[in-house]
């Protein structure tokens, strides 16, 4: 923690939070996760001026390797936990003792369990969430630049600038925030959070992309919650 302020002295979050070694455990954990994400994916931060190439170059190589390894291990752990959970549920579906339903196509019929139906819904929803996340990740630079230009008067955008300068997950969350504002612009205009002129000037193609992503994400989380509840009830 003592090395971070020295090498990231110009970074907006360093100026705001200090990244002090006196942080409590939860703040230290958050800071280390954030810094490891920045070091693993520094391109956007360098392009926007939040970090300089010298910041990355001069950062202690051994510590940099350790933090990048930590970042990738965390992602690997999350992916594997998800795969293990789905695999265990697939095995549960195979040995499900309940009554079988039949899926018929003319003379062809295929027996399946209600458990498998709920599990397939869960898998589809997880994949959909992943796809939307990847879409936001790839479009993050465009979404951030466009929202900062067209929605510069929006308090929600102004107060969430720190997300832009954190790791990639923070930028994905920022994109989710922008998509929510654009999709429900009528409500946010009424509350004064958005200006009608700002929403009107927002590029139509990007607006449509954000609205589709927003509703797909909502449907995916709703479907995921429904499938988890259904699986618990069938156990």
Automatic annotation (TrEMBL):
Query: Looking at the record's lineage, which domain of life comes first?
Result: Bacteria
Assigned keywords, A-Z: Membrane, Transmembrane, Transmembrane helix
Transmembrane segments annotated in the record for this chain:
75-94, 114-136, 169-190, 210-234
What protein does this entry describe?
Uncharacterized protein
Give the lineage: Bacteria, Pseudomonadati, Pseudomonadota, Gammaproteobacteria, Pseudomonadales
């Amino acid at each position: 923690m003592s090395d971070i302020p020295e090498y990231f002295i110009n970074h907006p979050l360093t100026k705001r939070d200090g990244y002090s070694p006196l942080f409590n455990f939860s703040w230290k954990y958050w800071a280390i996760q954030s810094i490891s994400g920045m070091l693993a994916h520094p391109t956007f931060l360098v392009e926007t001026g939040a970090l300089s190439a010298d910041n990355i170059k001069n950062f202690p190589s051994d510590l940099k390797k350790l933090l990048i390894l930590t970042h990738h291990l965390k992602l690997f752990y999350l992916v594997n936990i998800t795969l293990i959970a789905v695999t265990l549920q697939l095995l549960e579906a195979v040995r499900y003792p309940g009554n079988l339903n039949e899926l018929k196509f003319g003379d062809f019929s295929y027996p399946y369990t209600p458990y498998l139906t709920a599990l397939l819904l869960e898998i589809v929803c997880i994949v959909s969430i992943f796809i939307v996340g990847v879409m936001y990740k790839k479009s993050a630079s465009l979404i951030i630049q466009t929202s900062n230009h067209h929605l510069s008067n929006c308090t929600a955008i102004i107060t969430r600038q720190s997300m832009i300068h954190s790791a990639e997950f923070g930028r994905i969350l920022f994109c989710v925030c922008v998509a929510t504002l654009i999709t429900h612009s009528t409500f946010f205009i009424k509350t004064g959070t958005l200006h009608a002129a700002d929403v009107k000037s927002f590029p139509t193609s990007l607006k449509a992309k954000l609205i589709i992503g927003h509703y797909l994400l909502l449907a995916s989380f709703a479907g995921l919650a429904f499938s988890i509840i259904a699986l618990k009830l069938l156990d």
